[in-house]
Amino acid sequence: YSNDWQMVAKVMAGSVVVLAVLAAIVSGLLRMLQSLKAVLGLSGRLAIQSLLQHGRTSSVQIVAFSMTLSVMLLSFSIRNDLISNWQQQLPAQAPNHFVLNILPAFKDALVNDLAQAGVVSSDYYPVVRGRLLAVNQQPVTKRVSKDSQGEAATQRELSLTSVAVLPADNQLTAGQLWPEQQPNWVSVEQKLAENLGIQVGDQLEFSVTSTHFTATVSSLRSVQWDSLKPNFYMIFSPGTLDSFPTTWMSSFYLSSDHQALINDWVQRYPAITILDVGQWLQQIKTLLKQLTAVLDYVLYFALAAGICVLLTAVSASLDQRLYQGALMRTLGASRSLIVRMQWMEFGLLGAISGVLAVSAAELLRWLIYQKLLQMDYQPVWQYWLIVPLLSVILIVLTASLGLRPVLNQSPVRVLRQ
Question: Positive or negative CA dihedral for 255, 223, 165, 132?
Fold first, then answer.
């Protein structure tokens, strides 16, 4: 469905690794429980003995529940925290509006209006719309893979700009900005360059309206796209784009108390376009909620399947548990002792599942935040209490339903059968 076999392979391989690691951890934890028998009461010793007696089944159940709960927890966290955490990490008064299509004749007047209103804007950049046609005389269409960043960038016009000094949100990764102070040098965003196989020294051909021109790649650079400031795939040396029709763009922060100013500026400068980032983020939040809600329904079915597996496992061992319970009651064990033993056995199973679920979810959140999104990771300590507790309650209640015959049937009848 994703049409991305590489991503699917990575997800499947990662899942296999997680399953293997969880299985090894569960096996080690069950062995560690053996050492606790000496310090526990009778019901605790009996619970651990029963858990170890059904060790393979217990391991499968713990791994299944912990995997399901961890994915549910991750889905919940992303839906509720991801965009909020990203917004909190933005600088105070980070730009929340983009202004585009500023005609050169109106640029100074708009800058003055923003200054009079006390609005702080980012740098202004000249923009020329153009297409990347070829790399070293080879059409770019032969260098891109389907649905890649390169295809998206080559199937439309790009916003081209020229600067003398590299923007603050850009860092050189190869080459130097302008080896010589002359036109027809270009700096290329690193990921796009990797996708198209572009290297320093390559010749790129562009088209602006009906005019073609070439530029030499002087450098590659990384771009902080989430800075909410203007950023570009292609940046040219000063003078390269001077002969082409140019508009200007910038971004600025405007508080909700001054939103009425936007209408005034749009009426005064009809050509400009002002984009409200807040509306984008609200749409993204809505989309994330819808997508994760769909995922949650799938995970609810997975959790229900886990409960069915637990009931099936209890049913499969019911004869053995009936016989064990009958012997214990015949030898003088009270009904309450057997109940406590059952609750402790499945309570341990639920607690281990819950702790492993939180551990896996927090590890995945750390990987997503730190490695994928380059955001600060903040652990959610409440999960370490809430999730194991809910897991214990769910598993104990489910197991209690399946184990009612152990308590309800008379020991004499069970032993005769």
Answer: negative
CA–CA gap between residue 368 and residue 354 (Å, rounded): 21
Number of Cα atoms under 13 Å in the Cβ half of residue 138: 10
From residue 84, how far is each of 77, 80, 110, 294 by CA, in Å? 11, 7, 32, 21
- The pLDDT, as a whole number, for residue 234 is 94
Note the pTM of the prediction, 2 decimals. 0.61
From 207, 265, 253, select the one nearest 234 (Cα to Cα): 207
Instruction: Return the CA Rg of the chain.
Output: 31
Query: pLDDT for 139-151, tens place per residue?
Result: 888 877 665 555 6
Eight-class DSSP state of 226: G
124 HSE (CA, 13 A, CB side): 18
Instruction: Tabulate helix, strand, coil % of the chain (nearest 5).
Output: 60, 15, 25
* β 203-208/125-135 pair status: antiparallel
Phi, psi of 97 (to 5 degrees): -140, 140
* Bridge partners of residue 175, in order along the sequence: 219
240 and 185 in contact (C-beta within 8 Å)? yes
What average pLDDT does the segment 210-236 reach? 90
Q: What is the pLDDT of residues 118-176, one digit of tens each?
A: 888 888 999 999 999 999 999 888 877 665 555 666 778 899 999 999 888 899 999 99
**Candidate ranges 30-44, 82-96, 136-150, 267-281; pick with highest mean pLDDT:** 267-281
Structure tokens at 213: 């021109």
- Measured CA to CA, the distance from residue 395 to residue 398 in angstroms comes to 5
Closest to 236 in 3D by CA, of 254, 251, 215: 215
DSSP-derived letter for residue 69 is H
Q: What burial letters (b/e) apply to 318-332, b meaning 16+ CB within 10 Å?
A: eeebbebbbebbeee
| Encoded tokens for 282 | 């609200």
